[in-house]
Each structure stands twice: as structure tokens, then as C-alpha cells.
Sequence to fold (348 residues):
Amino acid sequence: MNRQELTRRQFLTTASAGTIAAAASGYAAMDAYAAATEKAGKQTGKRKKPMIIDAHAHVYADPKIRPSPKATTYMSVGQQLDMMDQMGIDMAVILPLNSPESTAEPQSMFEIQYICNKHPDRFIPFCYIDPRLENQPKPLTSERFEFVLNQYKQLGCRGIGEFNPRLYWDDPAVMRLFEAAEKVGFPITFHTTIEDSTDYGLIDEPGFPRFEKVLQSFGNLVFLAHSQAWWAEMSSDVKLEEKTGYPTGPVAPGGAVPRLMRKYPQIYGDLSANSGFNALARDPEHAYKFIDEFQDRLCFALDYCSVKNERKLLEWLKTALGDGKISRSAYEKITYKNIAGILKLGIA
Fold:
């Protein structure tokens, strides 16, 4: 049947249960784009273990908007699949970008669902819900957030993220969303920042006192920790002006990251982007010990935002494995077993 000839009633009748309802014309347009880029990535069917799963990806069906004159768009499906095939990455978690602080091109859940339905063996969907949703005249209750999240869960979403509104960690609306996420069983991939910054993300002071308040309030809520402001506190001597950057040099003992990870087992480390990679590469000897201690709670991730990005984490991990600096068991946990376990994929 020609999708362009579908009526709305016919489309809703024939669409798969995991597909978000949309106008037939809109679906046809996206289907045409997918057909044009189908050759860019191969669907490989059932894969042999061990796998490699990227826990942090941003993928658009057909990106159009650049955030600045010198920037590129985000990665398209074809570009993402090409990169994954070249690097030997089996699957990737798509984190929709939807907060007004983080992107010039917001994504609908239809787009995320469409991409993941088109390539079910390559992509895993997360959802995004802004805690300021319908925030008039009062913040939504946790029950309303739970109602929305359960619908995303029925559509196949496995978590929330990249969660990055520029609000305080302990803002009442944020806390209500966390309460709902804990009930639904969704992990949260977050981006955090400091108050005196133009960066997006949940706001906290050095040492993460507000985040710790959240951890104490929601003991069963899993967090995938990401961003410069998080990984900069690998070291205890980080300066405030370095929090949203990439500190260099040896790691001083007593940083907030290892301290909080030791105290709160629901924290997992998202090693994506230059922030996660820098936290390891700045002090390799410390990194090998950190990996050994937290091998059950670190996740391989890349966070490609542009075809111009350079991501060296996988090469670094393979070299560390080949040189005997990390164990095969730790490598496999980081590259796929930990995130597969968090998301209950049944392949760990």
C-alpha cells in the first residue's frame, strides 16, 4: 500500500503498536527520507556477543538547523549509522533534545519513535519530559508526570534524557518528576552545570549538595551522570572556573565523583563526550584504578553532536585492554553489559 494514499483512519489502523500516531502525509515524508538513506547503515539482524552499545547518542531523521554560523547540524540517521558501522558499534541509545536551553531544533517523540522503529536492532529510545510542562499556575503533580511517563514506557522508551533544564536539582517541579521516574522505573541521563555559567543543565554548587539531596530522597532512581561539571569533579582540587571545562593534570584524591559513587550505588558514569573521556585520559594511572573500582557502574558512550566531533574513548579503552591495564571483564561491562542491565535489554 502506498503510504501517501493512506487516510488518517487507515494509518492508525495499520500502524504498528510501537509507532506514535501521526498524520499520514508527515509519515510519508519521513518514510521517503528513510528510504533515501537506507543504504547509509546496514541492519545486521541478531548479533553475536560481546556487543558495543553507545549509551548517549543524538540522532535526527533529517536535521536542518545549525545552532550557530560555524556549527553543523546534529547527526542524521545515515551519518550516525555510518559512524557506528565504522567503529563497530552495535546499538545506540537515542536521547531526544527538547529543552529550550539545549537545542535550536527540538525533537518530537514521533521522530525518535520513527527512527527506532525503522532500525530496531540499532537504536534504543529514551524520552524527554520538561518539568516545566504545563507549569501554570502550579507545577504538575508527580502523578501527572507518572501518567505521561507510563505512556512513553508503553511506546518502548527505556529512560529519560538527556535531562538538562536549567533549573536547580531540588526545584519542586524537578523533584516531582524524579518521584514519578522512580515509580515508573526510568533511569535518567543528566547534564549538570553551575549557577554562574551559560551552560545548560541542572544547577548545583561544587560538591553537588543539591544532587546529593536528590539521591537521599530517591534511593531507587538510577542516574547516568554526564557533563563537564560532573566529570571535572573527578579531582578534589578542581577550581570553580574549571567546572564547565576540561581540567588537566593528575587527579587529586577526594573528588566528589568517586565520593558520591561510593556512597550512592544508583549513580552510573556516562563516559561520553570530551568530558567523560578527559576524566580518564588526564591521568591514566588513576583512570585504571577508577575503572577497576567502578567497572560495574561505568557506561561507554560517545555523544556525537556533529560529524566534526572527535571521540577517542573506544580507542582508549581498547588500548587499555590490549596493554593489560583493564580486564576483559571490565571492558565488556563498560562497553555493553552495564547499560544493557540498566535498560533491561536481556542481552547482558
Observations:
- Residues 328-342 form the longest helix (15 residues).
